[in-house]
Amino acid sequence: MMNFNSLFRSQKFQKYKLFFNKTMFIRSTDKPSTESVIRPNKSQPYTKFFVLDFEATCDNGAHLLKPQDMVSNSPTFDDVFLNFCNWHNDHTNMEKEKSIIVTSGNWDIGNMFVEQCKLYPSTIKIPEFMCTWINIKKLFALTMGQYPLGITNMLKRTNSKQFGNIHSGIDDCVNIITIMNQLSQRGCVFQATNKIISV
Question: Between 129 and 36, where is the model more confident?
């Protein structure tokens, strides 16, 4: 049985804040079958998981949806993304490891990330490792029999304790890891669920 807490060694890194513009990206979706996902005796196809959760700062008319002052003086997205790619490369041995990004939903990669990259067409090309990911909600639905409303719902349905605050990026990542542990104990095989085919 895989314990995901052991896969995530403590790393000190700068907290990055990202911006979201409201245009949406239509993504392709791979639909893994229940048979391929819930198979207790099958080994996991990935050896490392990068759990990712973005938080957005945007205006909705007169209402500010997230605290703008937290991100006003932060580095720009292209600098942040370059640092992240370097960090990812430093923590991945491509010859010995097979890694994948894990999110709760498709918004983080399929919408927000892609739209951000479009703002920097001359400096950012989406790397291959960001084009495929696991939407943990899909594997939760296939394992538990019902599509979840969100992280809180998945924690509740697996009788897991919530860590920190929902919609706080790092806390959400810890909670996603908890959910992955619970699904692993129920025989879930963590396979890719989504991919970007064009931008």
Answer: 129
